[in-house]
């Protein structure tokens, strides 16, 4: 074992002791005296800073990460049935309940949809490699993409998200927006034909791979820990880790990242994310895609972003700043958010719920066994002022329909 490894091991041990409530403040000088003979100057400074004020790479920072991760990763959700609406639901009402208002806001504008993957299009599962999307959700996305531009914005790498979604007509922004690709040629279903739009963190790839290999080795002793390589960022999953081991695992990760000042550590739902320090996030990805679509300075666009995680807040903030479109948080519990509306879970996002209802306003939506055009949908199409030949046919059919079947609505 090298001297550097010995030093890091000793610092790691001292950090673990420092986080224990059994360690009195008076013990700090004694620990420094004990380790002072074997630690190098940089390690001494790091240890002293950690033990005395908790503001180093461990201590309070690790505790803060754990507290934030625990707050955004509830293990139990109390039932809200038969309860009065809380102030949170008053400020962030259900997007389903406010659907008509959302439609009115988008009237005459080009809708562009942005969706997170995990927790939005698929449920959060113990094994991130098994976060499969339902066939109903896939069919809904395919239908939505026929009517307006649709993008998946995820922390995962593009290849993994594409393998889950398998729709070539979508835009994909992986690695928290640091890897953006457009739709493939619709005549070809081969993967790999996408046009690379933007990769702002390409120079970090060697560093990301190096840290990935280190973290895989460091986390092996922790049962249930999983390190995921998402190309331009890394995810350390805590979903299958005993909560009693969260602090020690977070310390391991934090200690590794302390040697890489060009990387930063953030938290999410039972996950720690390692990302380059470039000023790029899901909000920047949203702005980039709108600009690529020609809507950078347009007043006739209505972006809708749906997500469930802390990283989606960057996109919600962009929409609030633009004063255009809406952000929708997928959550069953109150959270501090810049989203305007909420949905409970992926089932409310999928077919027969919000996204599917939204798509029905941009095409022909039939209801009932007799395949009667939905009255509200037809009226919306007629009032939009921008009808395709097919929609004009629907308009004419809708106007003639009362005369054909009487006063039935």
Helix content: 40-55%
Count of helical regions: 16
Largest sheet: 8 strands, mixed
N-to-C SSE series?
Answer: HHHHHHEHEHEEEHEEHEEHEHEEHHEEHH
**What is the average per-residue confidence, as pLDDT, rounded to a whole number?**
76
Widest beta sheet: strand line-up: 5-4-3-2-1-10-11-12
* Bulk shape: globular
List keywords for this structure.
single chain; 409 residues; globular; disordered C terminus
Structural description of this entry:
With 409 residues, the protein is of the alpha/beta class. Helices cover 41% and strands 14% of the residues. The protein contains 16 helices and 14 strands. The strands form three sheets. The chain has an eight-stranded mixed β-sheet with strand order 5-4-3-2-1-10-11-12, with helices on both faces. A hairpin with a 4-residue loop joins β6 and β7 (234-237). α1 (3-18) runs parallel beside α3 (41-53) and α1 packs across α10 (246-257). The longest helix is centred in the last third of the chain and has 17 residues, at 389-405. The chain starts with a helix and ends with a helix. Residues 70-86 have a biased composition (Polar residues).
């Amino acid at each position: 074992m090298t001297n550097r490894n010995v030093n890091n091991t000793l610092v790691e041990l001292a950090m673990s002791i420092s986080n224990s409530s059994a360690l009195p403040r008076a013990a700090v000088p004694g620990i420094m005296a004990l380790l002072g003979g074997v630690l190098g100057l940089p390690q001494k400074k790091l240890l002293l800073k950690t033990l005395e004020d908790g503001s180093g790479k461990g201590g309070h920072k690790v505790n803060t990460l754990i507290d934030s991760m625990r707050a955004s990763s509830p293990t139990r959700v109390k039932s809200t049935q038969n309860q009065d609406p809380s102030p949170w639901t008053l400020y962030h009402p259900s997007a389903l309940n406010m659907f008509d208002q959302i439609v009115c806001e988008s009237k005459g504008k080009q809708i562009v949809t942005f969706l997170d993957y995990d927790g939005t299009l698929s449920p959060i599962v113990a094994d991130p490699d098994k976060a499969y999307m339902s066939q109903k959700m896939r069919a809904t996305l395919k239908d939505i993409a026929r009517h307006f531009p649709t993008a998946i914005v995820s922390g995962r790498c593009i290849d993994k998200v594409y393998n889950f979604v398998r729709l070539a007509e979508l835009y994909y922004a992986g690695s928290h927006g640091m890897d953006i690709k457009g739709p493939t040629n619709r005549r070809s279903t081969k993967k790999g034909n996408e046009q690379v739009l933007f990769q702002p963190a390409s120079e970090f790839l060697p560093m990301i791979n190096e840290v990935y290999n280190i973290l895989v080795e460091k986390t092996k002793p922790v049962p249930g820990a999983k390190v995921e390589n998402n190309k331009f960022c890394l995810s350390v999953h805590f979903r299958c880790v005993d909560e009693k081991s969260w602090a020690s695992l977070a310390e391991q990760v934090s200690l590794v990242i302390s040697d890489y000042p060009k990387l930063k550590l953030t938290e999410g739902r039972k996950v720690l994310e390692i990302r380059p320090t470039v000023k790029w996030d899901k909000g920047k990805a949203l702005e980039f895609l709108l600009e690529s679509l020609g809507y950078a300075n347009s007043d006739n666009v209505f972006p809708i972003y749906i997500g469930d995680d802390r990283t989606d807040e960057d996109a919600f903030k962009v929409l609030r700043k633009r004063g255009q479109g809406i952000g929708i948080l997928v959550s069953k519990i109150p959270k501090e958010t810049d989203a305007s509306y909420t949905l409970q879970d992926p089932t409310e996002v999928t077919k027969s719920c919000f996204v599917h209802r939204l798509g029905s306003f941009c095409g022909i939506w039939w209801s009932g066994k007799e395949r009667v055009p939905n009255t509200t949908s037809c009226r919306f199409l007629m009032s939009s002022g921008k009808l395709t030949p097919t929609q004009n046919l629907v308009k004419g059919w809708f106007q003639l329909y009362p005369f054909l079947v009487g006063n039935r609505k």
